[in-house]
Amino acid sequence: MQLKPGCQAEYKSRHDNLWPQLATLLGEAGISDYSIFLDEQTLALFAVLKLAEPNSLADLPKHPIMRSWCAYMADIIETNPDHSPKVVDLKQLFHFA
C-alpha cells in the first residue's frame, strides 16, 4: 500500500483508534497478530499478519464495514476507484522459522 505525503500522523491516529466492529470483523475472518510497517523514505506500507485456516480473507473487501473503512482511508492512501487500497503482492525470497 502507499501512504500519501504528509499523512503519517493521521494514518497512525486512525489505526490507533481502529473501529471496534472492524477489529471484530478482522478476527472473525481469521486474522491475528496484524502489523503495518512504514518505509519512511518511500511512504510504502507493508502489512504482516497471521491467517488461520480456514479463513474468509477473500470476502473482506465485500463486507460493508470493510468498504466503509476503505472509504474512510481513501484520502490518505493511494486507492483504486472503489476506494480499496492499491496493493502490490510481494514475492517471498526467504523465510526462517
What does this structure look like?
There is one protein chain. The chain has 97 residues and is α+β, with helices and mostly antiparallel strands. The protein has helices spanning 8-16, 20-28, 64-73; strands at 31-39, 44-51. A hairpin with a 4-residue loop joins strand 1 and strand 2 (44-51). It has a two-stranded antiparallel ribbon with strand order 1-2. It has a domain at 8-73: Alpha-Beta Plaits.
Short description:
The protein is of the alpha+beta class. It has helices at residues 8-16, 20-28, 64-73; strands at residues 31-39, 44-51.
Note the main attributes of this structure:
single chain; 97 residues; alpha+beta; Alpha-Beta Plaits; two-stranded antiparallel sheet; 3 helices; 29% helix; globular
List the helices and strands and how they pair.
Blueprint (H helix, E strand, L loop, with lengths): L7 H9 L3 H9 L2 E9 L4 E8 L12 H10 L24
Query: What's the tally of helices?
Result: 3
One letter per element, helices H and strands E, the order comes to HHEEH
Mean pLDDT: 96
In terms of structural class, how would the helical and strand content be classed?
alpha+beta
CATH class of the domain at 8-73: Alpha Beta
